From TrEMBL:
Similarity comment text for this entry: Belongs to the short-chain dehydrogenases/reductases (SDR) family.
Record protein name field: H17B6 dehydrogenase
Species, as recorded: Sterrhoptilus dennistouni
Record-linked Pfam families: adh_short
Cited Gene3D superfamilies: NAD(P)-binding Rossmann-like Domain (3.40.50.720)
SUPFAM superfamilies tied to this protein: NAD(P)-binding Rossmann-fold domains
Top-level taxon in the UniProt lineage: Eukaryota
Any coiled-coil regions, as ranges: none
One term of GO molecular function: oxidoreductase activity
């Protein structure tokens, strides 16, 4: 509905530019913006989120592949939110390497998997206690992004059934990492669902680098509007599922 996404605290990774920065702006522009918004940047002092007018923008989660960096971020968030816990974790950090099947390398595969799949795993593991606190803190029983949720920003390029845009972009390392991220979403949903934590994969339609003209949404703004609208509508029946920015259910 028009009331937007109302959530007490949000940690968003990958805020250095593009979709991450767009989501940050979109969250701040909600009718009732988050009381605590943690923007995890690769470069907290950099041009990305450091200079945005965000309440406490820099969260020291410089690197989602570094356990010490994640631990420091958990500590920072804990100090701010206290016993209310963390309501919403959006795993948005993502990288890619342009490639074809002929040119794909072990180095690409390993680098992209480390960021796109292991990063969200480690971040979700580390923030689980705070997400559990949030799930228990609310009087409500219904699962939602307002209560406690992990949203993995995935891609339709990771859908095995759809195998979208093969002619435009093979990018094996990216496709494989996102297919694996989708399996992680399902695993998180199976394990954390009983604690009241909603776990969902979302394709924002805005991929970097962009596909050919005409593919996906035209602007980051359009993507962000759709994603935030979707997040406001997710409930327990959506746990462990895959959606796109248009609010359409996607096949794995």
């Amino acid at each position: 509905g028009m009331e937007g996404l109302s959530v007490g605290s949000v940690l968003l990774t990958g805020c250095d530019g593009g979709l991450g920065l767009g989501l940050l702006k979109g969250l701040l522009e909600q009718p009732s913006p988050p009381r605590h918004l943690f923007a995890a940047c690769l470069d907290p002092q950099g041009k990305g989120c450091g200079h945005q007018p965000v309440p406490k923008p820099s969260c020291p989660l410089a690197d989602v592949t570094d356990p010490n960096s994640i631990k420091a971020a958990v500590q920072k968030v804990k100090e701010e939110v206290g016993s209310a816990g963390l309501n919403l974790l959006i795993n948005n950090t993502s990288t890619t390497r342009r490639s074809t099947l002929a040119t794909e390398t072990a180095e690409n595969m390993s680098l992209v998997y480390t960021t796109n799949t292991i990063g969200p795993l480690q971040t979700s593991q580390a923030f689980l206690p705070l997400l559990k606190e949030a799930a228990e803190a609310k009087g409500q029983r219904e699962m939602s992004c307002s209560r406690a949720a992990i949203i993995n920003i995935s891609s339709i390029l990771g859908s095995i059934e759809v195998a979208e845009a093969w002619e435009e972009r093979q990018d094996i390392c990216y496709r494989c990492s996102k297919a694996a991220l989708n399996m992680l979403t399902k695993c998180l949903a199976l394990e954390y669902g009983s604690s009241g934590i909603l776990c969902v994969s979302v394709d924002p339609g805005h991929v970097t680098p962009p596909l050919e003209p005409g593919m996906g949404p035209v602007t980051v703004e359009e993507s962000v509007r759709g994603v935030l609208q979707l997040l406001a509508q997710l409930s327990g029946t959506s746990n462990g599922t895959f959606w796109d920015w248009r609010g359409q259910r996607l096949p794995w």
